[in-house]
Amino acid sequence: MTDIASSNQDRSAEIDRCLSLIAPSQPDESKFVGMLLLPRLLQQNEPESVQRVFDGMNFKFIERLLRTNTSDNGSDSQIPGHVLREIAVNVLACFAHYDKMAATQPMADRIPGLSTILTANDPSDTTQEALHTMMCIAVSKEGLVRMLDPDVLKNILELVAETSNQKERQLGTQLIHGTFARACHLLHETRIPSLASALKYALPTLFTALSRLLDKHQDELKFEALDLLSSILPNLPSEVVRKFKDENASELSSWLDGLRSGLRQLLTTKLGDKYRDQAMVTTACLLRYFDTDWLFGTLKKTKQSRRRSEKKPSNRTTDATEADIKFPQLLIHLVAVETRVILDDIHDRRLNEHNLQAVEVDEEKEKRQEIMLPIYYEILESAIQYLSSHYDEERDSGMDAEVLLKIRTALTDTMNVVMELLKFVQDTSSDDQLENDMVAQASMRIVAVYLAEEGYEME
């Protein structure tokens, strides 16, 4: 016991010596020595010692170490720059292990510096350690504001795009997911002007990177971008999106074109439920935030497209432009089919329950249906509203009659299934049950929109 106490006293004395060496008044050589020794003395199972080091830390010098250039050996020191950065990250990682320290302003202020050392395919563990540390810090309002800085976000997104190291990419995407999720959650709970402003200024960087990844990449990065979009977009506060739109009107068209192209590529290929659902969620959110022209606008080119196709050889393949023009029709058809499949399944299940027949419970399937049915309805509602406002029998809208007829048929067939389910629910449910039935409420809304807007239909 005496030896242990003596050892602890010795380490405490060494910590005090290191803190004196890194004091602002000391020359750089002393600070380098102190920083080299400190990581070896810090024990994460001794919070009192770590807190003492944190309280005495020269954070300005930590920042200098983080900002050391790759070729810089740190003033007149013979210590390589990458070693200095690694030391700084190790010290910050030790502090970040404790929630109280991680949530402080000095730690939040280190996020920009930490983001500058991120290196794709880093042979050391420094990049991964920096990402872990940033995750721990990005929990407080101060940490989130720093994380949403466009330069910080750009550094992380570039790492995700450039690295072939799966762990680095995974940590990078987790950091982005967590940052936006926590920021949006806080803003939905309370008004925080600084955080709302930071989120607004982060969105151009996010849209620039993710629209490019979704459109141009044909590898895992396309699905990483889709995953980020489908998790971030549904939670964005509407007021933040409104201001973002107003301040970035000139760039919106380019971003939406890239997102539309990427979504078309995904939804015109065979996808599993997970990625198809993510693509549908992303589509519905973009329609909610940015109206309908960006997606359905090419319907105005369908008449011209048909005329061109009639002049082409029958064996000529469809190019990207023609595929883009046909995308709205394909999407509406796909959503209509998916909607009918879900409604038929819900109807059958409820009919069996009403008749007291055995029903096989599939909680995962039912949960997916509860999530996706409103998403499908939202896309169909947007299509109905677009057609009702842009099609006019008295003038040439550029929309092909055959395309419109196919869309009308898909919508009518779907609405018939919706109304059939609604009739069954109304006949078998009390008013209270009907009021609390989310499927019924969403179905009544889409039917009301359809009946109110069906003036676009051709006679």
UniProtKB/TrEMBL annotation:
This is Neurochondrin-domain-containing protein. Pfam families: Neurochondrin. InterPro entries: ARM-like, ARM-type_fold, Neurochondrin. It comes from the Eukaryota.
